[in-house]
Write a structure and sequence with these properties.
Elements: H1 2-6, H2 9-20, H3 35-38, E1 46-57, E2 60-71, E3 75-79, H4 86-92, E4 103-111, E5 114-115, H5 123-129, E6 130-133, H6 144-154, H7 162-166, H8 172-185, H9 189-192, H10 205-217, E7 223-227, H11 235-248, E8 253-257, H12 261-267, E9 270-275, E10 279-285, H13 286-291, H14 296-302
Parallel strand pairs: 3-8, 3-9, 6-7, 7-8
Antiparallel strand pairs: 1-2, 1-4, 4-5, 9-10
Helix pairs in contact: 6-10, 8-10, 10-11
Bound molecules: adenosine-5'-diphosphate and magnesium ion.
Length: 307
């Protein structure tokens, strides 16, 4: 990529024109990547900074040299056609790829001044601070209340066991506060406060997904990773999730994968466009990406020419 840095603007236009004659099987033009397209300048603090992240699944090179800085307390959208590595990249941000046997990750992911891939990283702690919400709502087959308090109970932050009560520790009031706070933050409290002991699986899909967001909030994360959190939901439930994400970005850093470009345009502050082969092609303010992208391929993708 360093040769592209040296290339003048005039040359690059020429190159682009020459190359636009050839298209890949996926219908993408073959265009050189340019470092400046992925350098995103913003005001404010950085929540996560990745440096030359590469991911292989066995022989498949799924992500190439991804370097990006994710601003704190804002919404960053990751978009691009299916299979371009969005989920893979998201999983790099709290080492969820560790759980995939075939995956090997290189490069650095800096969070809170440390590379999370350094030896000795406490993964439980990391995933508390960098929480996640999946594509399909996956509440535990437990009560609404227990879904929220599950993490804090597991980590020992809340203890409501009979034994502990006999020994003089009773966190039931803390648990009530936590459950209410998280459900309110996830815009679900008003709908469920009279049935906290009901099984969470009885909720609608949209409510279940908001419950999963509330559950992710219960461990007090700083960053929330969301992989197509609304793709299984109807339009009304989707719009509630979008409003919620917007509200959450006052206090949390949200990184969201979506294949829905309108959604990215509606809810994100900045957008990173990944394209086939696992390349980050352009990263900038969402308005800039959607109104005036630098890359022809990004423009073609956004205007629906492929993907
Ligand atoms: N668990 C896995 N094992 C092997 N290959 C995988 C795995 N997950 C993803 N891949 C491959 O990595 C590439 C990127 O996939 P993914 O990150 O899921 O893309 P996206 O989320 O953009 O659709 C694809 O070619 C996919 O087949
Ligand atoms: Mg995906």
């Amino acid at each position: 990529m360093s040769d592209s840095q040296a290339t003048s603007k005039a040359q690059s236009v020429e190159t682009t024109n020459q190359q636009s004659a050839g298209t890949t099987v996926e219908g993408e033009t073959q265009e050189k990547l340019r470092d400046e397209w992925v350098q995103y300048d913003f005001d404010g603090e950085t929540a996560i900074k990745t440096q030359d992240v590469n991911v292989h699944y066995g022989d498949e090179h799924a992500l190439h040299d991804i370097s990006m800085e994710i601003p704190k307390n804002s919404v960053t959208a990751l978009i691009g056609p299916s299979g371009c590595g969005k989920s893979t990249f998201l999983r790099c941000l709290n080492r969820m790829n560790d759980r995939i046997k075939a995956a090997s990750v290189s490069g650095e992911v800096e969070f809170d001044g440390k590379n999370i891939y350094d030896d000795g990283t406490n993964l439980v702690e990391l995933r508390k601070r960098v929480g996640q919400v999946f594509q399909s709502p996956n509440p535990f087959p437990k009560s609404i209340r227990e879904n929220i308090s599950y993490g804090p109970r597991k980590h020992g932050d809340i203890d409501v066991s009979l034994l502990s009560r006999l020994l003089g520790r009773d966190d039931r009031a803390e648990e009530e506060e936590l459950v209410e706070r998280c459900l309110r933050q996830a815009a679900l409290w008003d709908e469920v406060n009279d049935r906290l002991d009901d099984n969470a699986l009885g909720l609608s899909g949209g409510q279940q997904q908001r419950l999963c967001i509330a559950r992710a909030l219960a461990t007090d994360p700083e960053v929330l990773l969301m992989d197509e959190p609304a793709s299984a939901l109807d339009p009304i439930a989707t719009s509630r999730i979008e409003d919620l994400i917007n509200d959450l970005s006052d206090d949390y850093t949200v990184v969201i994968v979506t294949h829905n470009m309108q959604q990215a345009a509606r809810i994100s502050d900045q957008t990173a466009v990944f394209l086939t082969g696992g390349y980050l092609v352009e990263y900038d303010d969402t308005d800039k990406i959607f109104e005036n992208p630098e890359s022809q391929r990004v423009e073609d993708y956004i205007t629906g020419k492929f993907g």
